[in-house]
Design a protein that fits this description.
The structure holds two protein chains of two kinds.
Chain A lengths: L2 H14 L1 H37 L5 E6 L2 H4 L2 H6 L8 H8 L4 E16 L2 E10 L3 H4 L4 E4 L11 E4 L1 H7 L9 E4 L2 E9 L4 E2 L2 E2 L3 E5 H7 L7 E6 L5 H15 L6 E5 H44 L1 H9 L4 H37 L9 H28 L2 H6 L2
Chain B lengths: L1 E12 L2 E13 L4 E5 L6 H8 L7 E6 L2 E2 L5 H11 E4 L11 H11 L4 H14 L15 H13 L5 E5 L7 H16 L3 E6 L2 H4 L4 E6 L2 E7 L4
Helix pairs in contact in B: 3-4, 3-5, 5-6
Classes of the chains: A alpha+beta, B alpha/beta.
Amino acid sequence: MTLTDTLQTSLKTVVNYRVRSLLIILAMALGVAAVVVLTAIGDGARNYVINQFSSIGTNLLVVLPGRAETSGSFLGAVLGQTPRDLTLKDAQLIGRLPQVRRYAPLNVGEAELSAANRLREVTVLGSNANLIPIRHMKLAQGSFMAAGTENSAQIVLGAKIAREFFPRTQAIGQRVRLGDSRFLVSGVLAAQGETMGFNTDEIVIIPIDFAQTMFNTTSLFRILIEAKSHSEIEPAKQAVLATLKQSHDGEEDTTVITQDAILATFDKILQALTLAVAGIAAISLIVAGILIMNVMLVAVSQRTAEIGLLKAIGATSGDIRRLFFAEAVWLSLTGAVLGFLLGQSGSLLLRLAFPQLPAWAPAWASIAGILVALATGVLASLFPANRAARLDAVKALGKK
Amino acid sequence: MIRLTGINRTFQMGDQAVHALNHIDLSIASGEYVSVMGPSGSGKSTLLNIIGLLDRPDSGRYELDNRLITDLSENELAQIRREKIGFVFQSFHLIPRLTAAENIELPLILGGVPPEQRQTRVNDALQAFELQQRARHRPAELSGGQRQRVAIARATIMQPSVILADEPTGNLDHQTGAEVMLLLEALHHRGTTLIVVTHDRELGARAHRQIGMRDGRIMTDQSDDTH
């Protein structure tokens, strides 16, 4: 019996047992579709988080006062409860390190902003000109601490703030009052929306000196650093720690977090999540495989007389085995392809429904889903196909 | 040319050994028309299955066309069945989901005959057995006589040298049975060896050589020269 004939004959059988075949194909397809859709969601979530986190900067390092390891409690470091604060002098020392492209000291506080008979509470960032590029913020108009104006009382407004206070007029050049001081609006941020729970549309930025005066402090909340290149991130971290240790009388009381390390951690966690979800979905494929085995066993006993006849008219055991085997291959192949298409359409619907979630099934998941479907289908058919091939012709013919 | 020497076949029925064939010696020349008769349980079907290579004897020698069959492999036996032997069964054994033409085509598919040749040979067979109008019908839509004609067409499509018929008219009325026998006898006239197993005396008497069996032994073996 030629391969083409084996495939054609078994395909004819699949088509003839329409309902039975459709049900198996459906079971297989749902399994594959589950793998595709669930990994699309998992990987989409991973990409969403990674994109969000990447968008806050490139080769970013963050220096915080306090040391997580020595204090034993990360909370202390976050709240800045440490005997020695980060100062502007520390920031300047860091700025001179060869691995550092640029740095931005940071103070954060709340103050009342008033202008044009309007008044609201805003989040105030105090920093230098580098903050804008390091944090990947964009100015829609104007500038911040442009050369020659570093010491003037200037303020950059978030997009929403600018819109609220100056709905009809140019914001740039307007005078506003922040707390007890007056500032000249020098720039307006481009609307960026929320990233990592921080909305840059509703902040204002003023020079660090004014911020420290306003909040009556000499310590810094954070120092943001951009390393010269990706490979300089780790050396920069070590250099920053060494510099600060020296400047803090030999005490290692600061923490440096790299964006890279956090990104890698997120990536690892979410990748594991995607794998776990894919694994759970793959169980349904195993179930579909067992279903195929069951149905094929029923088929063998239903078609016993037919198998006997095929042997009587000259089919070898191999012919019979291959016929049943090919039948299972057709069923699982059709199921796998249908499931893949179903899964891709499902992912497409997800992307249409939630545009911010890049729900693309990773190629490995689609390929693995199809391969696992084929493998379970084929493995599940081995036992029934062998049983059919080993049937005794005389006994099989005697069976009605 | 079929030559059986000292063939034994025993079946285990519960704790009892049934001697289905008890030391059978039998020679059938090419082109003979033989009927095997006997009550049920006499071993006539077992004899047919052994001649048809569906069953293997426990001991003894079987030569088919001067070739010793007894120690051939399963695949070699399947090939001989395919090329030299045609089976006709009492219950037709047609595959219900295939059309008449597809049922007739099956041995050609198993034999690896290319599709174009299959088509002409199936058409010829349909014509020879007056089944052209029924080619696209499934067995359930055919009468008993038509079903047996399809089965005979299938058995002869590979042009075997031996036709083995096990109660070929058992499921047919008298008239249709007689027609089917005429078809089988026409094959014999063209030189095919025809072996018919039956318990119908009238049917058995049509054969040129009549073998009577009982309890796994050949009791009578008469040749009739008037035919």
